Amino acid sequence: MNEIKNIADNADMIVNGYAFTKCDMGYRVLNLNNPHNSILISTSGETLETTMDDIEISIVADYYKNNKKFLEEEYTDA
Question: Domain of 66?
Answer without folding.
Answer: 2-71
